Amino acid sequence: MRLVVDLNRCQGYAQCAFLAPDVFTMHGDEALMYDPMPDDAQREHALRAAQACPVKAITVECLDAAPAGEKAGVPHVG
After folding, report:
1. Is residue 30 classed exposed, middle or buried when 0-12, 13-18 and 19+ CB atoms within 10 A define those classes?
2. Please, which residues bridge with residue 34 across strands?
């Protein structure tokens, strides 16, 4: 999985940092740092964080073999 955060859209609500603190970290009030390629152990937390973003600034891209009916590399949340 690869995470992409639109930092222009991000408003610093920090829901992602609360739900996946090993992937997303707030520095100061508005600066978000994140791991764009979290390991499989953080997969579920990263997906929940992306879904919880109030401004939908986080995109999740699946890089591994796609389940039946999906294409690899197509953005997918959930």
Report:
1. exposed
2. 24
Per 3-state DSSP, the chain is made up of helix, strand and coil in percentages (nearest 5) of 25, 20, 55
What is this structure's pTM? 0.76
Give residue-wise pLDDT tens across range 40-75.
999 999 999 999 999 999 999 987 655 554 444 444
φ and ψ of 24, to 5 deg: -120, 135
Q: Where are the alpha helices (DSSP H) in 1-78?
A: 15-19, 43-52
Query: Phi, psi (5° rounding) for residue 67?
Result: -65, 160
Q: Where are the alpha helices (DSSP H) in 4-76?
A: 15-19, 43-52
